[in-house]
Amino acid sequence: MIDTNIISSDDRIINIKAHDQLLKSEILNLNLPARLDDNLQFTYDILIAYDTYMQKKAALVHRRVNFYKQISYTFLDNDGRFYSYINLHVGNVVQIKEESGISFAIIKALFTHKYNDGSTYAFVWINWLRESLTIDPILQCPVYEVQKAENVRWHRVYPIALIIGIPKVHFVHRCGSACTSTSHDLSNNQYFRNDFYYTAI
Ligand SMILES: [Zn+2]
User: Fold this and answer.
1) How many domains does the chain have?
2) How many A from CA of 126 to the centre of ligand 1?
3) pLDDT tens for residues 64-84?
């Protein structure tokens, strides 16, 4: 199932498609809020996103959000010509434009929300990847740490227009003894930024 009735407040973004809406059971399993009121920090971050990036300051009438596994869209340049096709999946590392430059983040969830005027907008819910001071002594790669849940200082919800793209560099979990080939122990929140293309053994 693909939902296409989605617009962006940035008119360079067209052809937005949301794929594979999460079922109620999946939302429960992932501990995501089915309604805004189920997670006050999430609700607050959505309000900030509307206010800061979309110039919409009203209280939100619709309290429901729809989560998806994938959202794709076309980015146009300032002259309205094709610039890039972006296809986001939950778990992707993305680049986000900030005042201070470009930052990395991991997509925690992709969702849509209907604004008071009846228009539906697409958002990402992310965890920031912050560069730590550590350089891995063996691999000589910079180490990044995923924003922890209790760190609410950095907002996590952004309209999809803020995403610049998928980075060329790769992030690889800094595996510990509790990781296996099929499942990573994510209580360890460190990732390598792999600037050199190599295959982990
Ligand atoms: Zn791991």
Assistant:
1) 1
2) 19
3) 999 999 999 999 999 999 999
